[in-house]
Design brief:
The two termini are 15 Å apart. 34% of the residues are buried. The chain contains 17 helices and 11 strands.
Length: 398
């Protein structure tokens, strides 16, 4: 988990001091004593609340699925308003058109500017919109600045105040409804979004649902019960749901950041806008896999090309055989990544995490087996190639 956090910091830069102070207020709140709870106790608290503050870790699918499961459990006897940080307030008209059936879900994505303003995985959030439409609830946009851009404490607090204004208006317009807010977990400390709402003079029975606290998970792991506990509670109105190990959320965020960089490369924005280094990408994934498998591997002999011309110059130097050069041409023409162990050079055909991880697996296998030649002689190399492809696939799944 520490290693993943370091990787995220490398890409994002260090957290500003004012944001660090903002984060500490949240961390202090989750450092309070807690007790093991249950899904049944959590759902009962949700049913009795007027507003639910549901924590979100934007890049983590299990975070959004947690709220989907809770929403599915709600009875049809009470109207529900789902407030979403993932849509800016200016997109409310598109949410209304979607809910009325005048535009479809993909049109909602395009017209609301999802990819530009938010950018986190659409597929993970989409079921939240669809269940609201199916059950004839309301959707309310709560964000003012999207999910991108440099964070400051002032900007985070301003977002909370604007969201509180929208929530206040919506709650007064729909008395008796359950207002279910899905907002970044850091915002849900009592001194953050809940206070911004109370500062508007609104009184309410609330439940806060935090997600995947690192401290709580590690405390449970110390006791050997982390696999059997899904919910803990700090009080009758404050819970934490443990839907995945805490390092998984950081891995998901790291993959999101890498996909963002890859998208920029795929769109040709590699003129200084996107800082994507294929060698660094493959080397990092090979090191990560080796560490996870308990292997010692120093990746200091690898060069990865992501363009045909550069790899072809290396391939011509590496191969004396016309047959090998012909196979290299075939692989290039058909968009296939490959590794040349004799010279420590590789070709990454597509700049996606999956392709880079598979190439990292091929590199890992070559170094562990001591192989120095390419496995391009058939049928003799068939069995060896099966092993290499299997390890590459396995590492891509890690």
């Amino acid at each position: 988990m520490r290693q993943l956090k370091v990787e995220v910091t490398r890409r994002m830069g260090p957290e500003p001091l004012d944001v660090r102070a903002y984060t500490r207020r949240y961390e202090r709140e989750l450092a309070k004593p807690w007790k093991v709870s249950s899904k049944a106790e959590l759902l009962k608290a949700v049913e009795n609340a007027e507003i639910v503050f549901g924590g979100d870790f934007h890049a983590l699918g299990p975070a959004q699925r947690t709220h989907l499961k809770i929403l599915r459990s709600l009875s049809d006897d009470r109207p529900v308003v789902v407030g979403l940080e993932c849509f800016s307030i200016g997109a409310q008209k598109w949410l209304d058109l979607f809910m009325s059936g005048k535009i479809g879900v993909e049109a909602l994505r395009k017209k609301s500017g999802w990819d530009e303003d938010w950018g986190f995985p659409w597929e993970n959030y989409r079921p939240l919109f669809e269940i609201a439409k199916r059950r004839k609830w309301s959707l309310v946009a709560l964000n003012t600045s999207g999910g991108k851009g440099k964070r400051t404490a002032k900007q985070l607090e301003s977002r909370e105040k604007n969201a509180a204004k929208v929530i206040d208006r919506a709650m007064r317009a729909t008395p008796g409804a359950l207002f279910y807010v899905v907002f970044g977990d850091l915002h849900l400390a009592k001194s953050h979004l809940p206070r911004a709402l109370r500062d508007r003079g609104l009184e309410f029975r609330d439940v806060t649902i935090h997600l995947n606290s690192e401290r709580i998970y590690l405390d449970l792991a110390e006791k050997g019960i982390e696999l059997g506990v899904d919910v803990v509670k700090f009080s009758a109105s404050q819970f934490c749901v443990l839907s995945s190990p805490p390092w998984v959320k950081w891995q998901s965020y790291l993959l999101f950041l890498d996909r963002t960089a890859e998208s920029a490369v795929d769109e040709g924005l590699d003129d200084g806008v996107a800082d994507f280094d294929p060698t660094d990408q493959v080397a990092r994934l090979a090191t990560l896999a080796a560490t996870d498998l308990g292997l010692e591997l120093k990746v200091d002999d690898l060069g990865v090309y992501a363009d045909d011309e550069s790899i072809w110059r290396s391939a011509e130097r590496a191969f004396r055989s016309a047959a090998d050069r012909e196979i290299a041409r075939y692989l290039l023409a058909n968009g296939r990544s490959f590794f040349l162990p004799a010279i420590g050079v590789a070709y990454l055909s597509r700049t996606t995490v999956n392709n880079a991880a598979a190439l990292a697996g091929e590199y890992l296998h070559a170094r562990l087996s001591g192989r120095s030649r390419v496995l391009w002689t058939f049928p003799g190399d068939f069995k060896a190639l099966v092993w290499t492809e299997a390890v590459a696939y396995f590492v891509s799944k890690i």
